[in-house]
Amino acid sequence: MRADAPNLQALWADLIVEELVRNGVDRFVICPGSRSTPLVQAVVRHGATQATLWNDERGAAFHALGTARVTGSCAVVTTSGTAVANLLPAVVEASLDGVGLILLTADRPPELREVGANQSIRQMGIFADHVRWAFDLPAPSVDLPARALLTIVDEAVFHALEAHPGPVQINCPFREPLAPSRAPFDRAWLAPVADWLGGEATLTTILAGETIDLHSIEPLAEMILEAKHGIVVCGTATRDADRDDALALAARLGWPLYADIRSGLRLGEGCDERHAHLDLLLGRTGMAAPDVVLQFGARLTSKRMQAWLASGVAGIYALIDPEPSRLDPGHQVTHRFVSDVGYFCAELVDHLQETEAQPAAWNLRAADDAIEAAIERATEQGDEPSEPWVARWLSRHMEPEHGLFVSNSMPIRDVQRFSVLDGPPLMVDANRGASGIDGVLSTAAGFSHAWMDPCTLLIGDLALLHDLNALMHIAAMDLPLTVVVLNNGGGGIFSFLPIAEHEDILRPWVETPHDIRFEGICSTFGIPYARVGSRTAFAETYRRASAHRGHIRNRSEPRAPRPDRHGHRAGAAQRMTGPPLLLLHGFLGTGADWDATRAALGPRREFRTPTLPGHGPAPTPVPAAPAFDALVSALLAAAPSEPFDVLGYSMGGRLALAMLCAAPERIRRAVVIGASPGLDDER
Questions:
Q1: pLDDT above 90: residue 662
Q2: Considering only CA atoms, which of 79, 67, 76 is closest in space to residue 35?
Q3: Contact 279/430 with Cβ under 8 angstroms?
């Protein structure tokens, strides 16, 4: 935290970002713009943040959504005007699916609102009730105590991450100067938060208590003890402990368990209670109706299971979810517990330990296994990589540490229905709040960026067409992401709906047929592409792609950004993550030129920032050398022994090129900014 900020706007933004970081929000997605400059500089110059640059706000919000699905939270920084409006689709998804997003929306100060000023709209209220909480800050002023500013941030994080997670908005008006230039202000403003400045804790700690007790669970426990045909349904789960507790309860009761693809229990071995095809069995002629249903987590993928639950055949239907929103589309829930899943299960098991539950009066294992065997036979016929076969193959052959993100429409239904039962226990996620197909690629990029290990996206052609902007960022970020596109030439899901009987409406107005191939689009962004027509070709191509950290990946050499005064050096460095990074300054610079870049990238990697001979004290000394070649040799001798990246500006760029030529096996990537390659005639 910099107490010596150059002006009040910069200090104001520094306090906001510092308190977010202390609350555990250290991931930021930044969109370009001027009005948000104080927030941007606060993020990139903070030593503990991880920032990603995304050039369109719609994609940026979805990218943050994907990141938050893995890390629990992410903040988005935008400029004012329509930039804010573009966040709405991802905000809706985050709101419905309970994902913690913090929207830092820069704004014009009050005197420039409602007067026709440029790039000024009504930003407060633009997200309506899709945000959990919103606050319109005043423009930076010492009239608002620093303590008040910090508590506003604490309140925002509480609403975003605690009992009812979801998006929140902090609207941040700023006056000039926006840049971190010197402007006087009363620094005594910080005196009341001196202890906070010297510590690491948040200013305010907000705690929420449990919501149920043993007495409220007793009536349901008695019904469970008497039940003969009970089932456990697992919807979306966010914690490993929740999955384990639900599974342990099903085992304790001896009830069959139906697991949604996002529950964490649908894939992987060792789940004897799981009945993957229970939705196909329930409601069959002669099948007894369950007398008790315990559902943990909402938003089921299977339309059959949703329809069965909505039919009202279960006498007791209990829904347990920490989300306080109404999650009962069929209006059949008889017992609603707004509770932590683990806490509920612990209370229920404690009560059940006193009495033996009735043994289950049905055995559905043989029927479920028969359906699984039929699916195996059907999907293994032929050599065409059909959509069910692709979903099944991925669930069987992906590496267990890899992540799988699935698009809406047919892909997620295929993964739910056709995944094998004995494959790896993959982490699977999707945007199932509003279940839209927009922003899927951007969300998957955020998911992959936060997951760290390789990830796969299974997506349809229309969903990919909705989000092509994201390809530019995926290529630049070099994400370990393999994108599998199921291209059926339009909205294939509509052929399964009643509208398919009306051909004049189905095509083109609903199915939106096309003959687009994605090879040219991928080529534009320098992304490897393969079109496969057989199962063997699919398997070979996928394994090769995932082994090289992703099928969609920038394998070409990075382009050198133009040198100017607007931070291109820091931006170029920010795209390079992982191995040690050697930063070489220009002719008139020093190693300290890269301090802002190092701060922006944080402590995630090793840096070397030597001051070249004749340019001041060197934190990483480089021996003086009379000749250019000798200097190159000295730099290589002082560089890390493992393969490293090098980024050079001006004279440093020439040195980087020379190092690459001298020892290509030691340098993974080189970015050269504003450096001639040494031509005799540079005209």
A1: no
A2: 79
A3: no
